[in-house]
From TrEMBL:
Top-level taxon: Bacteria
Gene3D superfamilies per the UniProt record, alphabetical: Cation efflux protein, cytoplasmic domain
Compositionally biased tracts (Basic and acidic residues): 35-53
Positions of the UniProt region annotated as Disordered: 33-53
Domain Cation efflux protein cytoplasmic, first and last residues per copy: 2-40
Protein name per its UniProtKB record: Dimerisation domain of Zinc Transporter
Residues forming coiled coils: none
Pfam families for this protein: ZT_dimer
UniProt cross-references to InterPro entries, sorted A to Z: Cation_efflux_CTD, Cation_efflux_CTD_sf
Amino acid sequence: MTVDATPSVSEAHAIVAQVEYRLISEVSSLARATVHTDPHGSRDAHDLIAHHR
């Protein structure tokens, strides 16, 4: 998911934890969820390793 680029890492982590909690709470067949964030509007940092995927 993309988030505003201004929150701190701690704030972004808290957002992710809330999203994971809601997913697990609201989707009964879901036991685990992993959510990853990227700052909105920035270059995709994963481009650096894309050729390894």
